Amino acid sequence: MAIFQAKKFRSSSAESTVAARYRNALARHPFALFGLPFIATMVLGSFFLTPATALRYERHDRKVRQMTEDERLGIGKDKRRIDMKEEYYKLAAKDLDNWEQKRVKRLPGEHDGVL
Fold first, then answer.
1. What residue ranges are annotated as transmembrane (predicted)?
2. Span 47-73, mean pLDDT?
3. Per residue in 16-56, pLDDT tens?
4. Residue 33 has what pLDDT?
5. Handedness of CA 31, 35, 39, 45 (dihedral sign)
6. Global confidence as pTM
7. 6-44 core/surface letters (b: 16 or more CB in 10 A; e: else)
8. Half-sphere exposure of 66 (CA within 13 A, CB side)
9. Cα separation of 30 and 19, whole Å?
10. The dihedral of CA 73, 76, 77, 82: what is its sign?
11. Count of H helices and E strands in the chain?
């Protein structure tokens, strides 16, 4: 029965390539040749992406701004101004004692709530 070698066969021309030299060096110094560049990429990427993220939030802040009282009420320049006392007197002038209950029209197929 034949015994196989633990090492794979690599020709002498394959040993002179950059990839082969890197593979051999990586086996001896894994952190220096793989871990350190990976961590450096993550840290530097964070620093380079910070301004891009800041721009995103600054654009959002320009869109969302504090509204004035008139904007909240939906009053434009061409609309009349709402006066609370005037609205109160309009409601007080209405007759709230005489009213009639009206049933809301249901959609077709909707349960009408009648037992």
1. 31-55
2. 82
3. 888 888 988 999 999 999 999 999 999 999 999 999 899 98
4. 93
5. positive
6. 0.42
7. eeeeeeeeeeeeeeeeeeeeeeeeeeeeeeeeeeeeeee
8. 2
9. 15
10. negative
11. 5, 0
